[in-house]
Design goal:
The structure is a homodimer. By secondary structure, chain A is of the alpha/beta class. Chain A has 17 helices and 22 strands. In chain A, the strands form four sheets. Chain A has a seven-stranded antiparallel sheet. A seven-stranded parallel sheet of chain A has the order 8-7-6-12-11-10-9.
């Protein structure tokens, strides 16, 4: 029922004309990679497979559809009530694979009625996951392998479920953890849930007398030793409420003390208070975790913080200061990560929310779902916009690799053509520009899609896991040439068609397009 | 559980320090209206109230939290398991009201532990609804009152639930219908579900012999009469598969025939085929609905289509041609609507997807949730960025109206101050710039917030309905001065503070901000 009304009206029209059982093929693909880049990550397949498995109209769905299409006879609802995905075959590219324009991410084969009905839902289940996984992968590339990346976007997500999908697919794209508790609960060990405290926690304290502990408790030791260091370092002018908040938080999380230090004055108060409590914690054998910056000049503050840590490490001969995390989390996007790389900074982890989960730079991917063949007749859609012309007929897709094992290009061929072979020259053509041709002699050839669902067995090859998909993203990014990953003006990655497909497409195009008569 | 981890860690730290029952006040507000405009629509309150009503940790939630905070003692989980929202009082501005920066949309009062826990969820439930409702309202303003606006965004929404929220809140913002079936099913009569057919439907037909009907049926008459008109008008060169698809669709939906005419050649084939089937339908007393354009120059095509309809109305003396809808649906955004207004076009309805639901122009609103008072002590958060300084303490908000009944400004005063009165001069100040002051003598004064939830009764005043909220948006937009609604450079709407609040804020600010020592 998570679908557009026109899928139901079309389904009824097909059924009424007796065409709902015609054998058809649809392809789901996109035309342009997001965010001005060249790469896109295939994602969302896990939820597509669950959806196919559970697809069924309930009786309450059917009564509602009866209201929408009141003239349809009872036998149409009998047909709908019997519909499942057991008549379908679905091919897909594995989750976590880098994918490129016009290559089918999913190919759906089966009766026209059910294939058409699935359009909107499949698009919904693929579009946003691909987009946000790609965004996360780009953030990972921008930040570098050595940084910890945490997703903090739930509060700005587009609906509660948008927040859940974002958390899950950001992990797939290369993030280390999320602040989203429900994501951790549902997804289990694959997802680390992280979080410390907010400004409100610090603000809620005013004076040291608000934190009291019984003698002999951890809290008592922390407070006592903190005050001793405060006197020793002559840091009595820091914010007292903030210091109270840190002592209280350290008492609750002695082995995971990570403090937000910018509520009042980052260097003048927050940093000093953190150091006092850290020294106290270390005295009773707990290692503090680090600090978080949520405002101001992140490069400058992080460097100053690191300098102070180094100074303290020397002054007190305490090694833990060298290992403290510096988390930054104020309005970070891909561009900020790129800029920070060029500056001196000492940030070790980033907490990223809004710009990551809403995909600020481009909030939708634009996958489409197109009919390419029906009863063995290839279908084409003509458009005044050449980019929207459909490559007709059932196809197979391959990735051709060079001697260095990096991909040279992706290739579409007709279903019955022989695939390119290792060591043999293969003519690859631009689908629309006739002069653009290249001979490729591949060192390796990879078939991109395989069957993930069939009528008999349901899911084939198991549901993709988060950790498996995440590993695949990582290895795929390592494999591709760096210039395709560049932030500014990446080298275009070629998607070609075979000579046979080129000729077939252009003949069908000429046959279908009207010749205008001018007078 | 739809929350950030740090709410749980803070809650535990409050509980461990015995501070979880401290009486606290939080405010939820935003700092900047979206989309470069001045207006924002309050939305999402209905789901906030449902959430407060249902808030409760399940035993499986508690076991998962135990994994996350392994050192917490059993009594903490006893506390969590007993938590409900029965100790809270929540004030809110009514759903559908125009709202402005810094005015609290929600004020939450109650014990610190539970108030803090709600932060992320409340932000998630308010941020996106306000954003997408505002977007829909702006699209409505751009399109004009006389156009039909349909939301087609499900396939590009950020997650399935994002699609549902989008459909619901676009209706609140001023849309007439949606393509989203599940939205219609769940939301009932307040939401009209609309849809016809896609290009795939047209492409799935090739020849006229594919559509056959028994004599005496509607379909038989439609086909027979269509072919008669085809000969009469000498339009034998249109695409035969398209004509077959239209006949088939008209047979299924004779009283709701709306055809997508741009699959092959909009004016040369699609329009002609639509006219042929329409004439046939009219002959057997069904009135066709109209056409949809999904590509090309929408202004030009719609004008040409309207001209042809006018010509046909005259040629065949059929009035229905004047009443046909012209629906446009290709990548429409607010800017396109504004541009179309300046051109000659004949579009009567717009189907809008991606740019509406993903809020392309600004995909997140940026509401925040801040502690403003605890145990009667006002709280302030200092920031190097003046826009981020918090206005401390519990407050009340008012809207002051001029003699023409349009709002002059919004005003924040301290909780115990007397509100401004009708006919009396009241000094209103900019919260941060001391020289900006204005005396307002209001003709009407409206208190903006009222209690929507209390511990004893739960929801107070009922859940906001879709139709009620939609009406409110409409009347609020009528009430505000047009220059605040302008697309380019709208006049800023003032949000002021009372003189007492100004002085209080600035004294607290001076007291809290450190005086730097330079040497």
């Amino acid at each position: 029922m998570l679908t557009d009304m026109y899928q139901l009206t079309m389904c009824y029209a097909y059924w009424k004309a007796g065409r709902h059982e015609l054998d058809s093929s649809f392809e789901l693909f996109f035309r342009k990679p997001p965010f001005g880049g060249e790469i896109t990550v295939m994602s969302g397949l896990d939820q597509v497979l669950s959806f196919l498995h559970n697809f069924k109209f309930t009786s309450s769905d059917l009564s509602y559809i009866k209201q929408l299409i009141p003239d349809a006879p009872p036998s149409f609802f009998t047909y709908l009530s019997s519909l499942t995905c057991s008549s379908l075959t679905v091919e897909s590219i594995p989750q976590g694979t880098l994918v490129f324009p016009r290559i089918p991410l999913l190919t759906i084969k089966g009766p026209l009625g059910i294939c058409q009905l699935l359009e909107t839902t499949l698009l919904t289940l693929i579009n946003y996951p691909c987009l946000v996984t790609t965004n996360a992968a780009r953030f990972r590339i921008a930040a570098g392998e050595d940084k910890v990346l945490l997703e903090f976007g739930l509060r700005r997500a587009q609906g509660p479920d948008g927040g859940f999908s974002a958390s899950k697919y950001c992990i797939v794209g290369g993030f280390d953890g999320t602040s989203n508790v429900i994501a951790g609960k549902i997804l289990g060990d694959d997802v680390q849930v992280k979080g410390t405290h907010a400004h409100a926690f610090v603000q809620s304290y005013k004076e040291l007398k608000e934190v009291t502990f019984e003698e002999g408790t951890i809290g008592h030791s922390i407070k006592e030793k903190t005050l001793k260091y405060r006197e020793e370092l002559n840091w009595g002018d820091t914010h007292e409420g903030e210091l109270s908040a840190f002592i209280s938080y350290a008492d609750a999380f002695p082995s995971n003390f990570l403090a937000l230090i910018d509520t009042y004055d980052t260097l003048g108060s927050g940093l000093k208070n953190f150091i006092l409590v850290s020294l106290a914690l270390d005295d009773i054998n707990y290692k503090p975790t680090g600090i978080r910056l949520d405002s101001g000049d992140l490069a400058y503050f992080s460097s100053e913080v690191r300098k102070m840590f180094t100074k303290m490490a020397a002054q007190y001969s305490r090694d833990f200061f060298h290992k403290l995390m510096i988390v930054a989390s104020n309005d970070i996007n891909e561009n900020v990560l790129q800029e920070l790389k060029k500056q001196e900074h000492a940030i070790t982890a980033f907490g990223i929310g809004t710009n990551l989960v809403t995909c600020q730079k481009q909030p939708a991917l634009g996958c489409v779902y197109k009919l390419v063949e029906i009863e063995d007749q290839p279908k084409i859609k003509i458009s005044q916009d050449i980019a929207k012309v459909l490559i007709p007929g059932r196809k197979k897709s391959y990735r051709l690799f060079g001697a260095d094992n990096s991909p040279i290009l992706d290739l579409l061929i007709r279903e019955n053509e022989s695939p390119p072979e290792v060591g043999q020259r293969f003519l690859c053509r631009h689908p629309f520009e006739e002069q653009k041709r290249v001979f490729v002699t591949p060192s390796r050839v990879e078939k991109l899609s395989s069957i993930v669902w069939d009528g008999k067995n349901g899911v084939v090859g198991g549901l993709p896991t988060i950790s498996g998909s995440k590993e695949r993203v990582k290895s795929q990014i390592k494999m591709i040439r760096g210039d395709h990953l560049r932030y500014h003006n990446p080298t275009p990655y070629k998607v070609s068609v075979s000579d046979a497909l080129f000729k077939f497409l252009h003949q069908l195009w000429l046959d279908s397009a009207p010749v205008l008569e001018l007078s």
